[in-house]
Each structure stands twice: as structure tokens, then as C-alpha cells.
């Protein structure tokens, strides 16, 4: 998978201090009852054995096989807009917006 991080998103990521040695997890989770959908999140994390690790400039990102399946594209852009927060965008669609990069359990 090819991940691109826009300059705006990089600025926001680098502004978050105190996360040295951690990577950014791109996570998709199937949620809901009768109407299932995928909820996406970005958080600081550590690598897990099944992850695909992606190096994007000076950033290391992890994505698990289920999330890759939910994204269903070989290209993903992580963008940031002041009114919308982080956005996950494929060539086909905007998967999520309003995301915050946070601690996993925070």
C-alpha cells in the first residue's frame, strides 16, 4: 500500500511532542449493529506482528490486514484541514474526516 502524508498533516504530526519511538497506526474497525460500517482512527502505537510497516518520509506507520481490507485501495492519503482534522482519502472516496491523532487508550 502506498501512503502519502500531505505537508499540512506532517506539520500537525510533528507538532505533537513526546511520541519518540512510537509509530502511527491507521486503524479501521467494523462497528454497528443492524447497519455495519467502518470507523477509522489514527493513534500512537507500537508495531504488532501482523502489521505492514510503512515508511513515509520520517514517519513510520502501521496498518493491520483487516484495515487494509476495509480501505480497499492500494493508495491512501492522510491529509489535515483546520476545520476537519485529519482525513483519510483514497482515489475513490473520503473514508473519514474529523480524526485526531491521539494515544490509543486516551
Automatic annotation (TrEMBL):
Residues 1-101 form the Core domain. Gene3D superfamilies: HesB-like domain. It holds the Pfam family Fe-S_biosyn. Coiled coil: none annotated. This is Iron-sulfur cluster biosynthesis family protein. It comes from Brevibacillus brevis (Bacillus brevis).
Amino acid at each position: 500500500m502506498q501512503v502519502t502524508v500531505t505537508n499540512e498533516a506532517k506539520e500537525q504530526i510533528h507538532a505533537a511532542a513526546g511520541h519518540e519511538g512510537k509509530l502511527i497506526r491507521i486503524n479501521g474497525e467494523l462497528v454497528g449493529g443492524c447497519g455495519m460500517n467502518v470507523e477509522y482512527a489514527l493513534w500512537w502505537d507500537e508495531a504488532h506482528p501482523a502489521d505492514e510497516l510503512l515508511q513515509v518520509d520520517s514517519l513510520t506507520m502501521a496498518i493491520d490486514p483487516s484495515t487494509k481490507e476495509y480501505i480497499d485501495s492500494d493508495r491512501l492519503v492522510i491529509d489535515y484541514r483546520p476545520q476537519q482534522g485529519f482525513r483519510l482519502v483514497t482515489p475513490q472516496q473520503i473514508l473519514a474526516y474529523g480524526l485526531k491523532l491521539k494515544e490509543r487508550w486516551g
